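User: Can you model how 3,4-dihydroxyphenylalanine sits in this protein?
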Amino acid sequence: MLERIEQIREEGRAAISRASDAAAVEEARVGFLGRKAELTTILRGIGELPPEQRGPVGKTGNEVRRELEGLIDEAKARHERAELDDRLAAEAIDVTLPGTPPVLPGHLHPLTRTRREIEDIFVGLGYRVMEGPEVEHDYYNFTALNYPPGHPARMLQDTFYVDAGSLGPDPALVGSDGEPLTVPPGPRDVLLRTHTSPMQIRGMEEQEPPIFIIVPGRVYRRDSDATHTPMFDQVEGLAVGEDITLADLHGTLLTFARAVFGPDRDVRIRPHFFPFTEPSVEVDVSCFRCGGTGRFENDRCSLCKGTGWLEILGAGMVDPNVFGFVGEHGYDPDRVQGFAFGMGIERIAMLKHGVPDLRMFFDNDVRMLEQFR
Ligand code: DAH
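Assistant: Here's the modeled complex, given as structure tokens:
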């Protein structure tokens, strides 16, 4: 019997040291010390042994039980600690990492904001906002703006051409009586408009003088680099009446420039060429970074490249030839005159907010857009 108890001691020690986790240790406890374990049964049956065996078997049996209990408690504690350490390591969180930022509600795109700002300024001056088609006839985009077919000025504005037949009958060429109108002069091409200027013609066809309109909208050109994208946005302006002069253009654009770029700005106009204005001008605003001095922080101003001026738009007095295309709508070049201007919305927004690359407006990178919240 004593021999068997010693065997159980050895088996128990071996089983406990073999146990690779807390569950296996528990299994060993049940196997060696549980109610149905052999040692338990031996100790429970001591009373039935011959009297001379009771003392040694009880003593050794209890000693083995205590030893195995001690080994089991120790092994269990060791495995539980290791398992806890593993779990803590696996579930570790770095509380110093930045949290997930809350998603803020959306906001207007910087170009939409700039467009609305421009619209507000001109609406405040009494202009009406008009919109027009992006898919346009050659006639409105070029011919009626005094770019005759074949004129080299057309080459500066190559664009995307559309299969005219795919559009079906042109509603613009059907009169209110349903009869086809005479086909306008010029090539019958249909194209993506290269500027908002065609709306000068459509605006004058729709409304007799005096007319004061601005036309925001998308335009398209075969162009692509840091300051040109194949699609961009313009705002056209047209003011025609009986005695509107270049001085009115200057005053209007001065008001505009001060509203957008600050009350201390000045504007200058330089001679230029556009087919549909005579004289034509380009308009500069005094640089708002260097205050027009061309020097900034003891260096050449990087925004205006040291010139003190930033080009913002093209403009001019409407060419009498253009009125010739809308004569039947009340625009007699001997009676009316006026000015037109056209600006790029992206260019205004880039200058105003210091955006270095035009394409950033269209990348939809929230890190950029968020700054215009
Ligand atoms: N349409 C011209 C362009 O896109 C800009 C322009 C110049 C518009 C002079 C005008 C103007 O109305 O008078 O390059």
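A couple of observations from the model: Residues 97 and 355 are 31 Å apart (CA to CA). The chain has eleven helices and twelve strands.
User: Helpful, thanks.
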